[in-house]
Amino acid sequence: MQCRIADFRCKEVINVCDGNRLGFVEDVLVELPCGKIVAIIVPGPCRYLGFFGREIDFVIPWDCIVKIGEDIILAEVKGEHKKVRKERGGWA
Questions:
Q1: How far is Cα 85 from Cα 65, in angstroms, rounded to an integer?
Q2: SS (H, E, C) the chain
Q3: What are the extents of the domains in the chain?
Q4: What are 15-53's pLDDT values in tens digits?
Q5: Taking the complete model, does pTM exceed 0.85, yes or no?
Q6: 2 contacts: CB under 8 Å, gap ≥ 6
């Protein structure tokens, strides 16, 4: 099966350890010199009704991905794979 990086945005990530739906892929980390995918990034859940932004992102290493299907990515996330979302700067 061949897949483009743009196709990952349409796939939902599910944790096989506890069955939680982590969300849809937002970004992919790629190691540029060799073109290797290092991790996928899934945005954290919304805070209070989506008004106060989102929680921290999930950074799932490529080694934790168990299976990639047509519309779902199964990942085995046992520990904490979270990264603080970058603060956006003001108008300078």
A1: 22
A2: CCCCHHHHHHCEEEECCCCCEEEECCEEEEECCCCEEEEEEECCCECHHHCCCECCEEEEEHHHEEEECCCEEEECCCCCCEECCCCCCCCC
A3: 5-83
A4: 998 888 888 998 899 999 888 889 999 887 766 665 666
A5: no
A6: none
For residue 82, the one-letter residue type is: K
Pick the CATH number of 5-83 from 2.30.30.240, 2.60.40.10, 3.90.78.10, 2.40.30.20: 2.30.30.240
Tokens of residue 15, six digits: 């944790």
